[in-house]
Design goal:
With 161 residues, the chain is α+β, with helices and mostly antiparallel strands. The chain is built from five helices and seven strands; from the N terminus they run E-H-H-H-E-E-E-H-E-H-E-E.
Amino acid sequence: MPLQFVPVTKIDFPTIQSIYAEHPHYVQLEGRLLPLSEHELEAEFLNPDTISLLCLDGEDILALIDYLPEHLTDHSTWIGLFLMPERLHRQGIGSMIFRLFHEQYLHDCPVIRLAVLPENVSGRRFWEDLGFRFERYGISNHNQPVEVFIKMKSCDDRMLK
């Protein structure tokens, strides 16, 4: 069965909790406590500004993705979250999922940005391997220092090859 992306609903909150539970270091970097409250989950994944998706392979959840199609200030697309179950890390699955996600949702976006927490070394490496480059330092919507990365569409975009 091919991978598919489905919108997050309230029914998915236990699944989202389990994905976060597999990443205690990331949750700690974010300054959050588990389990996330229903209010936190609603605010993050059911708000009118971002699009939240689960990547499925049949019944298996492969990734949780949250993105902002157009930022109010810079008008670029921002990836807010790309989180996979720990058991899938370092196998090339994340890169494959991102390429498919890009193909289906971001292919017309001339500029894509995302923020990485400075201590998230593996996250930074993942995005750099996909062609994202450091742009600047910034502050997240949770008032945390972040490193902003950017990927601009070009004629010889190797990300999709």
